[in-house]
Amino acid sequence: MTNNVFVHPATYYARYLVLVLDNPREELNPALGRYGVAELDDAQVEEAIASVREQPIDFRPWDATHLPSSRWLRQRKIYSVLHQDAATTEMMAIVAHRRLREAVERLLIGNVPHQEVAFRLQELGYRVNESAVADFRHYFWNTEIMGAGDWAHYYRSDNRGRTRDLQEQYDAARISGPQFALYRTGIRVEIDRRKTLEEMHRELYFTFQEVRALPLSDKKVEMLSNISRSVVRIEERLEAGDTALADVLRKFERFRLVSAPGEVPSMRDLAPTGTISDRGRQVAQITAKETA
Fold first, then answer.
1. Is 274 left (phi over 0), alpha (psi -120 to 50) or beta?
2. Of 120, 129, 133, 127, the residue nearest 188 (C-alpha)
3. 165 with 79, same domain?
4. Is 277 inside a domain boundary?
5. Are residues 207 and 167 in the same domain?
6. CA 168, CA 176: separation in Å to the nearest integer?
7. Chain segment 238-292, per-residue pLDDT in tens
8. Is position 33 within any domain?
9. What phi and psi values does residue 202 have, to the nearest 5 degrees?
């Protein structure tokens, strides 16, 4: 992918379509539209066409036994969509199910691993194989190849029914991470209070650095004052938590392990009815004789 072309989340599915369509320049975007995917711009279309132009001699993409063709498809990362299995079929079911698709897209853009996406969706009543989620991410919602500018460009060209509110939710999940993505999808999230306070403390520090760079004014003084008060409150909560933990640890320090006097009984004394196999007994006897 060239540096001057925006990346598209369905880049690899677009490659597949270019390979199978008779006239990709005319048919590619309508085909993507049928799957709810935003259009590629002209530069993206040309790049998709160029990516599959150089093909091996005697190219047979549908023949899985033809090694040069299979190798070429794997290099272009489109092998599995031509040689489909159960995961690919289930991937297309995700594409067709609007509410499920939105949940998967939100979780993936929030950097939730595809294994956890499949597991967590059960809480919403969806049973989805993790391989299908991985295929959906690869072919339709490839967050690994997208940057912030690529997403902004994608949203501008998205005329496939995603509302502005949904786009903002996606962007918030992308910026805020997995916990926020799970929460906005309606999945229960356990919150670590100490970690939350530490993250707020860190965020306030960088906000302080930004405000400090502003020209001197009454507004700047007010903002710095508010930040300072917030930092003090958070530090007080963190210190209170540390004090409570120290009190608990001091209580546990009262307990001590005391070893019982005498020798440790043998396994045979503890289990004389045969938890040690006969073979084990023989080995133990031979070892004892050799030691003596």
1. left
2. 120
3. yes
4. no
5. no
6. 12
7. 777 666 656 656 665 555 555 566 666 666 666 666 555 555 555 555 555 555 5
8. yes
9. -65, -40
Residue type, 1: M
Mean pLDDT of 17-39: 93
Q: How far apart are CA 12 and CA 7, in angstroms?
A: 11
Residue type, 263: E
The most confident of the ranges 49-53, 166-170, 235-239, 278-282 is 49-53
CA distance 224 to 84: 59
Would you say residue 237 has pLDDT above 90? no
Q: Name which of 48, 27, 160 is nearest 105 in CA terms.
A: 160
Number of domains the chain is built from: 2
Task: Give dist(CA 38, CA 250) in Å, integer.
Answer: 60
Q: What is the pTM of this model?
A: 0.68
- Residue 38 token pair: 């935003």
226 and 151 in a common domain: no
Tokens for 9, please give them: 């989340």
Euclidean distance between CA atoms 201 and 186, whole angstroms: 27
Residue 30 lies in a domain: yes
Q: What are the φ/ψ torsions at residue 225 (nearest 5 degrees)? A: -65, -45
